[in-house]
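This section describes the prediction task in plain terms. A model, or a person checking by hand, is given the sequence of a single protein chain and must write out its three-dimensional structure as a string of tokens. No templates, partner chains or ligands are provided. The sample shown here is typical of the held-out split.
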Amino acid sequence: MKFKLVIGDKIYSTWSLRPWLLLKYFNIPFAEAKIKLRNINTKKNILKFSPSGKIPCLIYGKIKIWDSLSICEFLAEKFKNKNLWPKNNIDKIIARNISSEMHSGFANLRKNLSMNFLGKNLKFKNNKETSAEIIRAKKIIEDCLKKSKGPFMFKKFSIADAMYAPVMFRFKIYNIKLSLTLEKYLNTLLSMKEIKLWLLEARKELK
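The expected answer:
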């Protein structure tokens, strides 16, 4: 039985990137259905697949999983041999903690640094809440990288990297100052064939 992942525009949808990147990286076959965002029919079209009215939504037979982190957890359980979470138990706990924090937090960062994967030199209105969240996100990623020695947050690519990849893109398009460790990590992400494919397909949406 094949998976079907319902996503939004690749230019804008950070939540869609997370499970899409995970599926691609771990070579899990899936069909893709894309719904145009910011359209008068967007909500109606999403509701055809996702009861929450939000995407992404993973469909597997009669099963529907309509939340990015839930999708990641489902895939981790389904493909235990692929180690979507770090193998080390302590690392796994930390990875789950920070992935959950990204999932439920950083509201100001998301609001004030809105996403356009193809954006360059974008400006944002900073405030103390947004600044604090930028500092927190950078610290989480940097602490993981310093401990693991890279190239990914827990040495090997995992759900944690999928959850934090869009934040690194935000740092890139808004010219957020990065340490050498974070610059190296950003370049690692940008060099991934899966990320290159996402950006290529995002550019096609402009045509």
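For orientation: The chain has a mean pLDDT of 95.
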